[in-house]
Amino acid sequence: MVVVMSEDRSRDEIWDLIVVGAGPAGLFCAASASGGNLKVLVLEKKSSPGRKLLISGSGRCNLTHDGEARAFLDHYGDAGRFLRPALLGFTNRDLVAFFEERGLSMTTLEGGKVFPETQRSRDVLTVLLAECEARKVEISGGKTVTSIEKSEEGFLVACGNDIHRSRFLVIATGGRSYPATGSAGDGYSFAGALGHSIAEVGPALAPVRIRDYPFADLAGISLPGARVSIFRGRKAKEGVGDVLFTHDGLSGPGILDLSRDIRAGDLLRVSLAGLRKKEEMERWLLARSEEEGGRNLRSVLAELAVPARLVSRVLELLEIPQDLKCASMTRRMRIDLADRLSGFPLIVDEVGGYDSAMATRGGVALSEVDSKTMESKLVSGLYFVGEVLDVDGDTGGYNLQAAFSTGLLAAKSIRRRLAEIEDGR
Questions:
Q1: Fewest CB within 10 A of the end CB: N or C in the chain?
Q2: Long-range contacts formed by 283-287: CB under 8 A, 24+ apart
Q3: Burial (Cβ within 10 Å: 0-12, 13-18, ≥19) of residue 179
Q4: CA–CA–CA angle 61, 80, 222 (5° rounding)
């Protein structure tokens, strides 16, 4: 439900809480903070709420992930420690219970990903909007916030000529990925104007384009459990996950989860044949040559479960004959082949842009936000939740879980603060 208020009312009303942004973090925070006589307003720049949520998980909404809550902390890069109070205070099981208690059952699919049983993002949004309506949250669509100022009584939030006043303010504007849904990075400007530092922003959970890519015609080939190493002079980061060859580069969880740390010009080394290191691979090739010298090299390499077309391309790039017998493999051939199979070198041309990235790295600096409440350490009464923070999770439902968990943590703090104000009157 979207409520469009009259201009006169918006000028005169003093809200207990204004939430800027009607994504999952903003809606859940608003619903959780409301109740009783509290007046809560959500301002959304698009005409309807939850635009990005509706395309989450290709419209299926990968809401969270299965497993122990503490295991979540390892899936947010360096931000796991900051998110600890939020994620352990409202866990994946709590999130599932919230929706199931409201009639939307959940199911766990491939790799532990949790989806609504209906496989429809819209059903998740419907539950959130119903909760907001039941708790008398007002949602005003088509309201582009143009400025935010601190005032004596709290905050002045301008939407063009309309001024909204509130005691507390939550910025839940998301990041910059999929800007057509409304997440264009507005929150960074608001936070900056209020004195906050913004960690460098860029695409995350994004595919990468490769310079002089040699595998364009092999698009669709997948490497399960590949090791991906990032080199920038020296090794900067390493991860393991499925890698997918695309027509111009690499994708799949093994790339997407590392993309927060990948930059243009980086050297990626991708293992094509499991997790063997170069020395192990060279010893394996030598042993095969000595034991089965009469076999075709391609036949032997098939034991590594490397796709046949990929084996042929690697041999072609190394100028090794396709019909070479193992016994005829020179030491130089063996060293080069071991090097490529254990970590094929590829130079990053660019990381996919915001139109293809599923999340945003960077955002409001975590050192300036209280991890136990999500309140600004610089501006009393100001809160940040969801992707506007310098937080981005791995694929698999981790970002939505963080959105809900931070949203609830902020809501609890705001309710306590409002109760203290009421008691002090």
A1: C
A2: 285/329, 285/334, 285/337, 285/338, 286/334
A3: middle
A4: 55
Domain positions in the chain are: 7-203+357-424, 207-352
Of the pLDDT bands very low, low, confident and very high (cuts 50, 70, 90), residue 11 is: low
Phi, psi of 5 (to 5 degrees): -85, 155
3-state helix, strand, coil in the chain (%, to 5): 40, 25, 35
Total residues found in the chain within this entry? 425
Task: Give the pair of three-digit tokens for residue 190.
Answer: 């608001």
Q: What was the pLDDT predicted at 229?
A: 98
Domain spanning 7-203+357-424, CATH class:
alpha beta
CA–CA gap between residue 37 and residue 417 (Å, rounded):
15
Query: Does 183 have pLDDT greater than 90?
Result: no
Residue whose C-alpha is closest to residue 381's, from 154, 85, 145: 154
Classify residue 158 by burial, with Cβ atoms within 10 Å: 0-12, 13-18, 19+: middle
Tokens at 214, concatenated: 């040699």
Q: Give every CB contact of residue 402 below 8 A, 6+ residues apart in sequence.
A: 76, 83, 86, 87, 386, 387, 391, 393
Q: Distance between CA atoms of 69 and 210, rounded to whole angstroms?
A: 36
Does pLDDT of 1 surpass 90?
Answer: no
What is the Cβ-side half-sphere exposure of residue 38, based on CA atoms within 13 angstroms? Answer: 27
Reading phi first (left if > 0) and then psi (alpha if -120 to 50, else beta), residue 23 is in beta
| Residue whose structure tokens are 């293809």 | 356
pLDDT in tens, 243-263: 999 999 999 999 999 999 999
Is residue 147 within a helix (H) or strand (E), and if so which, with residue range? strand 147-150
CB-based contacts of 38, cutoff 8 Å, min separation 6:
16, 17, 415, 418
Nearest to 85 by CA among 411, 417, 409, 416: 409
Q: Which DSSP category does 394 fall into?
A: P
